[in-house]
Each structure stands twice: as structure tokens, then as C-alpha cells.
Amino acid sequence: MIGIVDYHMGNLASVINAFKKTGADARLESDTSKLGQYDKLILPGVGAFGDAMEHLQRNGMDEAVKTFAQSGKPLLGICLGMQLLFESSEEFGSTEGLGLIPGKVVAFDESKFDHPLKVPHMGWNELFVQKETSLFDSLPDDFYLYFVHSYHAVCNDRYAIGKTHYGYEFVSAVQNGNIFGIQPHPEKSHENGLKIIENFSKL
To answer: Mean per-residue pLDDT for 43-66?
Structure first.
């Protein structure tokens, strides 16, 4: 059974529909006391980092997610949900994150772009696999996924399982043991995204 954290910050319908397409048994969960009952957990998210942390903290969901992560069971953060896994974000000032992966979230630095580009980074782009991981089983070494974001993670390469180029190279997928994160939206990425969802479901 896969739990999808419902904290009113994400396109939950498209996430749960994507899991159903792969045949996975996934359901929304807003009760912090029930998170531990699930075999795997999804932390989705769309919007601002600070608002998301506020929503998570409102009923103790932040601590419940941390407890789940410490259990050793698989946890996947998607888009903003991936960013929340880090120690902090500089979006609208500095905000503390869940601290499950060492690193921080920063704005795209347009002064470093190799040519003029629009921010947010929106649309299809390539993810280049950095190391072998079960999350990308049966996918090629680089493949396209759908992105929508203005901020990206900065972390040690030991945690980077995927990178993408938009103006410059940035980390687009991470893993720290049982904790996974992916910046693009697999639920909007057709066959490649569904394969990632299927792979996570089988962990």
C-alpha cells in the first residue's frame, strides 16, 4: 500500500491517477497517525516552499514524514516534494526543510546561463542518469520528463542520481538510502514518468 501525503499543496488527483494507471494501490492520507501503516510514501507538492512547510507543520505532518523516512521504508518526493526533503530553501527568504537529504534549494542563477532562457524552467527536458538506481530501472541513460520549477537543489554528488541542463547543469533527482526525490513531474511525463512510478511501486 502506497500513501500519498495530503497536505493541500499539490496536484493530488494527477498523482493518484498515475499510480492507478500502473496498477499500484495508492491512496491519499492526511492523518499523521496513519502514515506508518503504509509500505511506501509519496510527498507531492506544487507551490512555494515556505507555504508547503507551514502546511506540513500545521498538524505535525512534517514529523510524521521524518518518522516514516527513519523507518527505512521507501519515500519519494516529487517536484516541490523533492525540494522539501532538503535542509533549507532560499525561496522568499530562508526556510528550514525536512532535512532528510543534506543540501539546499536555490533559485536559478540566470547570470550563469550559457544563453538567455526563461524562468521558470517549464516543459520537456532530459534527465541524465548519474548512477545506477532501482528508480530508473529499464530506462535509458538519458530520457525526457516534464519540468515546472524556478528553484533547484544543490547537494553533494553522492546524492545525485539524475542531472539536467537548463542554462547550466543542476541536480534533478536524488537518493539518500530509502529516500528518493525527483524534480520533474513523473505523473505528467507519459511513458517515462509512469515507468518511474511503476519502479517506485515495486521497491
So the answer is: 95
Whole-angstrom distance between the N-terminal and C-terminal Cα of the chain?
12
Using 50, 70 and 90 to split pLDDT, how confident is the model at 69?
Answer: very high
Give DSSP secondary structure letters for 8-65: S-S-HHHHHHHHHHTT--EEEE--GGGGGG-SEEEE---S-HHHHHHHHHHTTHHHHH
Query: Catalytic site residues?
Result: 79, 185, 187
Count of domains for the chain: 1
Cell of 111: 547570470
Pairing between β-strand 168-176 and β-strand 160-166 as defined by DSSP bridges: antiparallel
Instruction: Tell me 110's DSSP state.
Output: G
Chain Cα centroid distance, residue 176: 12
Residues 6 or more apart in contact with residue 164 via CB below 8 angstroms: 125, 126, 127, 128, 147, 170, 172, 183, 184
The greatest distance separating any two alpha carbons of the chain, rounded to the nearest whole angstrom, comes to 49
12: pLDDT strictly greater than 80: yes
pTM higher than 0.70: yes
DSSP 8-state assignment for residue 136: G
pLDDT value at 128 more than 80? yes
| CATH at 174 | 3.40.50.880
| In the chain, alpha helices (H) | 12-21, 49-58, 61-70, 80-84, 190-201
Domain that holds residue 13: 2-201
- Cα distance between residue 46 and residue 12, in whole Å: 10
